[in-house]
Automatic annotation (TrEMBL):
GO terms for molecular function: aspartic-type endopeptidase activity. Belongs to the peptidase A24 family. InterPro entries: Prepilin_IV_endopep_pep, Prepilin_pept_A24_N, Prepilin_peptidase/N-MTase. Residues 111-213 form the Prepilin type IV endopeptidase peptidase domain. The chain crosses the membrane at residues 6-27, 75-94, 100-122, 129-148, 154-172, 184-207, 227-244. Residues 11-91 form the Prepilin peptidase A24 N-terminal domain. It comes from the Bacteria. This is Prepilin peptidase.
Length: 259
């Protein structure tokens, strides 16, 4: 039975991944979200049987049926990664009981994950955090978490994470941090609550420093290179969304034994 659930979750992830690809393309090109998909090169409509997540990419051998131009590897990659993350969320969240609470928690974590994937890709590709994504995400995160946290806890987390970036914004006069980062801080505060938001910030900064240093050492970046902070924050938020309790437990154990 559980494998049947896994199968359904993977299918759902592939469909959401396909939708995310479409959304990112349309946001970038300022097009309406609704309407049939078309080839970005020749603008011809894509038949439904050429628009099956993952499968169509391979059946078409990565080329458009009409103009034979290459389809970006981003499309199957995002679909595959979304499906994997949806499965990981399900395995980490499902407690083998079909209670309303548990189902709501799974639905919440999938929704947050989808938003984090969009934020990650957009910031990674274009160094931008869009209000068109962040504002709806803030509203949805707030409503979802009214079921799981008390109001004060949520507001405190949003204030601290937003304030943390706002301070950097003031100190650097807008050089290190943009307005989008402040709103992203508020969003991840609302997604995680207090004190989980602290864990996410620490993970994101550690991860960013390791990757940044790696790029500088291998001369693929300099100290002045732009950092997709939103991409790192998305990863940190995802990790603490699923495993914050385990991370805190692990951290307390380390301190207990004096390592
Ligand atoms: Zn085409």
């Amino acid at each position: 039975m559980i494998y049947f659930f896994y199968f359904i979750v993977i299918l759902l992830g592939l469909i959401i991944g396909s939708f995310i690809n479409c959304l990112i393309y349309r946001l970038k090109n300022k097009q309406a979200i609704t309407g049939r998909s078309f080839c970005p090169q020749c603008k011809k409509q894509i038949n439904w049987y050429d628009n099956i997540p993952l499968l169509s990419y391979f059946l078409l051998r990565a080329k458009c049926r009409w103009c034979r131009k290459k389809i970006s590897l981003q499309y199957p990659l995002v679909e595959l990664i979304t499906a994997m993350l949806f499965l990981i969320v399900f395995i980490a969240t499902y407690n083998l009981q079909l209670t309303t609470y548990n189902l709501l928690l799974i639905l919440r974590n999938w929704t947050f994950t989808a938003f984090l994937i969009i934020i990650f890709i957009y910031d990674f590709k274009y160094y931008l955090i869009l209000d068109k994504i962040i504002i709806p995400a803030i509203i949805i995160a707030f409503i979802f978490n009214l079921f799981f946290y008390n109001l004060l806890n949520l507001l405190l987390a949003a204030l601290i994470a937003g304030g943390f970036f706002f301070l950097q914004f003031i100190v650097s006069r807008g050089q290190w941090i943009g307005g989008g980062d402040i709103r992203l801080g508020i969003l991840i505060g609302l997604m995680l609550g207090w004190p989980n938001i602290l864990v996410a910030l620490v993970i994101s900064y550690v991860l960013g420093s390791i990757i940044g240093l790696g790029l500088i050492i291998t001369k693929r970046a300099t100290m002045k290179s732009t950092v997709p902070l939103g991409a790192f924050l998305s990863i940190g938020t995802f990790i603490s969304l699923l495993w914050v309790d385990k991370i805190i437990e692990w951290y307390l154990n380390i301190n207990l034994y004096g390592f």
